[in-house]
Amino acid sequence: MKENSAKDKVLLLLKGSNDYISGEELSKRMGITRSAIWKYIKALRSEGYEIDSVTNKGYKLINSTGVLNAMELEEGLQTKVLGKRLVFLQSVDSTNQEVKRLAAQDAPHGTVVVAEQQFTGKGRLGRVWNSPPGTGIWFSFLLRPQLPPSKVAGITLAAGLGVCMAIRQYTGLNALIKWPNDVIIGNKKICGILTEMTAEDNRIDYAVVGIGINVNTKEFAPEIRSKATSLAIETGSDINRAELFKTVLKYVEHYIDLYLTDLEKGILPQYTGLCATIGRRVKVVRGNSTFEGEAVSIGDHGDLNVKLDNGSTVAVNSGEVTVQGIY
Ligand code: BTN
Predict the structure, then answer these.
(1) How far from 122 is each of 100, 130, 138, 176, 263, CA to CA, in Å?
(2) Distance from the CA of 94 to the center of ligand 1, in angstroms?
(3) Which CATH number fits domain 281-323: 3.40.190.10, 2.30.30.100, 2.60.40.420, 3.40.50.2300?
């Protein structure tokens, strides 16, 4: 039996039992020695599984909240296409970069890369995205949609709506969207999305959607402390990242499908209902001029319609807007 599959089998036996299983029972069921069982228990513990052992009773899986690996991410995944090919890496430069490398090798639509840690996680506008191990969900997926490049912004809106809905459903928190695609709780950011694409002849070759969610982060770097929060900070307890990931992927797939079926109209009502930017004062910087107004709606191409103080309405893109009252 291969090392990994034997260890996974021990794990499955532990998962399938509500009570302690003796070392003898495990070794009988697996056809391996008790010392081999002990070796796998130790390996599983070092991966973060909390396994209790009691003399004369055996082993019991107590908790797997801290664990992120391919098996936990794939087990029970309810998507149709997203994550049917899933790559899990302990560390990588950036999951967006890894998906681009896989795309160059003809990876299929829906390929997902998840990493425990990113060394050079990328944020929007050339910023760095801090991605330490054990704290967040850092992942990217590959799409090969039949769309012109102008429609990619909507995919990002749909992904933001999906993350927002998943967080609301999984944690009960009042997550909202800061246009275009940050997910916030209160006035602080919990999730950012970076979409990159390559296009030719007015057709998307592929798009990479990268999502970073602050899940179990307890402390942020001083420069982002006032703007960032995590689900653990907001709920007061650690969250199982693998389970949340599967909920996120399910919702993200649903809203991207909805967007692709009915381009803008499919997601706009729900998106608008959860968008914290609508109804707020915003500042727009366009070229050398700056103007202020009220964000009133989302346009058909995903831009923000802002009613200026002189009564006229302009459609603006994300690089041009800051929202008052949110970071
Ligand atoms: C933002 O600036 O708000 C976007 C942040 C996007 C971060 C995610 S983490 C997973 C993926 N890989 C990256 O390098 N960036 C995105």
Answers:
(1) 13, 8, 11, 22, 28
(2) 8
(3) 2.30.30.100
Residue 279, number of CB atoms within 10 A of its CB: 10
- In angstroms, the CA 219 to CA 80 distance is 36
Q: Which band of pLDDT confidence, cut at 50, 70 and 90, is reported for residue 71?
A: very high
Q: Is 191 buried (19+), middle (13-18) or exposed (0-12) by CB count in 10 A? A: buried
What is the CATH T-level fold of the domain 3-63, as seen in this structure?
Arc Repressor Mutant, subunit A (1.10.10)
40 lines ligand 1 (CB under 6 A): no
Domain map (residue ranges) of the chain: 3-63, 70-273, 281-323
> Within the chain, what is the greatest distance between any pair of CA atoms?
80
Q: What integer pLDDT is reported at residue 3 of this predicted model?
A: 55
Place of tokens 């069982």: 37
Q: Of all atoms in ligand 1, which is nearest to the CA of residue 96?
A: 12
- pLDDT for 265 equals 75
Residue 145's pLDDT band, with cuts at 50, 70 and 90, is: very high
Q: Output the CA 154–ligand 1 centroid distance in Å.
A: 17
Atom of ligand 1 nearest to the CA of 115: 10
Pocket test for ligand 1, best of 122, 181, 183 (most atoms within 8 A of CB): 122
Ligand 1 pocket residue status of 210, Cβ below 6 Å: yes
pLDDT in tens, 149-195: 989 999 999 999 999 999 999 999 999 999 999 999 999 999 999 99
Q: What percent of the chain has pLDDT over 90?
A: 87
Q: Which CATH superfamily is domain 70-273 in?
A: Bira Bifunctional Protein; Domain 2 (3.30.930.10)
Residue 240 Cβ < 6 Å to ligand 1: no
What is the Cα 48 distance to its own chain's centre?
A: 21
**Amino acid 2: pLDDT:** 52
What is the pLDDT, as a whole number, of residue 264? 66
Most ligand 1 atoms within 8 A of CB, residue of 93, 96, 214 to mutate: 96
Nearest residue (by CA) to ligand 1, atom 7, is 212
